[in-house]
Amino acid sequence: MRGGFIRNSLLLTSTVLLLAVICSFSCTAEPTRFGEHSVNDFVSESTCKQCHAVIHNDWEGTMHYNAYLDPFYLEEVKVASHDTDGLVDEFCSRCHTPIGVVSGEIPPIDGSGMSDISKHGVQCDFCHVISGSDGIGNAPFIVTPGNVKWGPFGDATPSYHETEYLELYTQAEYCGMCHEVIHPVNGLVIDDTYSTWKDSQYGKDNVVCQDCHMTGGITEFKANPGRAGTGGPKRDHISSHDIVGANAFIPEIMGAQDVAKKAIERLQNAATLQVSSPETAAEESEVTIMASITNSGAGHNIPTGVSEIRQVWLEVRVTDNEGKEIYHAGALDSERNIISAKLIYNTVLGDSEGNATESFWLAESMLEDNRIGPEETVNEEHTFILPEDITYPLKVETILNYRSAPQELIDKLFGQGTYEVPVIRMNEMSSTIYHPDTPMEERTEATPGYGIVAATMSLLLMMHIFKRK
Ligand code: HEC
Ligand code: HEC
Ligand code: HEC
Ligand code: HEC
Ligand code: HEC
Q1: Using an 8 Å Cβ cutoff, are 26 and 135 in contact?
Q2: N or C: which end of the chain has fewer CB within 10 A?
Q3: pTM of this structure
């Protein structure tokens, strides 16, 4: 995808071909096993920072940086380990602390054998010593730690370390090693981010994960010219390493406000909302509000990843001119549980008895899949009767919300009152309902119709699905 600048010269093309031949051997090798390397084979991120300060600054505080230190993960893995008598210990750790696993430092799952470097989660000298992959899902990476750093360039000649080109770095399959989680015993696909992407229009057009998550474009590729390292040449594009998804909750707890802010920004570019409400309605009459939500910005489902834990829902609130509440769906109660939402857009997993469970290590089936697919539009209809004694005009607020986890689950793990899981407004619309007798000229606020104009616009935008050129 990356425009000519790598593959233009014949010389480079033949280097690439040669590497492809080498890769056809190393890429079919077995995934790196537990304890195959020593922790001393890996270099601390603080060393890479000396010359890759911008990239380091991007990465710091992201969920890759926090993949192991994430307190939510640490609590959940304790429960998972307990529930399965330690059977999942290596499995979970392989993605959340890959150096810990390949250097044989974890399990034990309590982390007692881990050095500082393993605790730094998905880090520079893990990602850039990946020298091949044995496929998709459950982390089938092949790592070759040492002086060679593997990457996307093909022509980098730093003096400090050697480099090796591997096309995998520019492909979704790189991310797909870890962003596809398959239950190791019963084969249930728990996280289908890669496969959903692959089957979507984005996958067909080869708009890869990196295009949206490693450029400044949020939902499309956007070139970011600069230098990749001190002393390196100026290049047309340097990928950003602030690989951010939707998680603003954990970054905030870990003090990475900038990462939380970027996650919110991404969420606010993920979905469009169209709402239609009647322009007028009399007291005691029935009112219907129609809302359509379109996944216009994500190359996979909304939500994706641990979608059995994530929550996306529509809140519809109607108040009269004095602020009296007439209708409220999707509100939070005093314990921050979501009440009377039409639907929570996520997955519901079932355990061996067919009961819903958020503990995905115990899951044997998927009971419900209510996520919004890439480019998919879903509709919600809210109908209620207007009471008497209300003052016009009425205000209709429709809000699309995202929450990283149910408050109940976080309270159960950490104790009530420890953390309040933030509710993020992905999108919102408001409209007005007038009394039928209100003269036209007094209906000051335009009430949107079915949003046909907006819908057409977003469709047009979607047709230009944006590739790196
Ligand atoms: C999750 C894995 C991952 C982590 C963690 C990571 N990188 Fe990268 N890095 C990549 C990928 C993938 C690319 C290529 C992206 C592309 O070209 O689309 C890349 C590209 C690069 C490049 C080439 C220049 C550029 O930005 O395009 C450098 C240099 C680099 N990374 C250094 C680092 C350093 C230093 C760290 C730690 C601070 C780091 N990386 C952390 C995956 C990672
Ligand atoms: C003494 C300076 C220095 C240090 C320390 C350093 N690098 Fe680099 N690195 C460079 C320079 C310079 C480049 C070339 C940039 C270019 O050509 O645009 C580079 C390039 C890279 C590339 C791109 C390779 C390619 O061909 O795509 C990766 C990946 C990378 N470094 C990773 C790392 C990692 C991981 C560490 C820490 C273990 C590290 N670097 C430490 C200076 C350094
Ligand atoms: C067209 C742009 C686009 C592409 C392509 C894309 N993403 Fe995303 N991604 C987004 C947006 C927007 C969000 C925020 C909405 C959401 O949570 O789904 C997001 C969120 C995420 C999240 C957090 C999800 C959650 O709800 O917790 C993960 C993880 C993720 N992406 C990984 C990937 C991976 C891996 C790929 C490639 C297989 C990929 N993305 C491809 C735009 C994209
Ligand atoms: C070695 C495994 C590994 C690789 C390779 C990897 N990731 Fe991740 N990624 C993780 C883990 C583990 C987390 C989550 C940590 C957590 O939430 O505790 C994560 C988190 C993320 C998030 C943040 C999700 C959120 O909810 O905000 C995004 C976005 C993401 N990865 C995208 C990518 C992309 C894009 C690539 C490829 C360039 C990639 N990852 C490669 C393991 C990996
Ligand atoms: C194949 C890689 C992989 C394996 C194996 C894996 N995870 Fe994850 N995990 C991820 C990725 C990627 C994410 C981020 C997805 C997202 O943000 O939606 C994640 C996110 C999470 C989260 C949410 C963290 C947050 O801050 O919101 C928890 C909790 C978690 N994993 C626990 C576990 C446990 C427990 C196990 C073992 C039973 C496990 N994981 C196994 C890749 C993996």
Answers
A1: no
A2: C
A3: 0.93
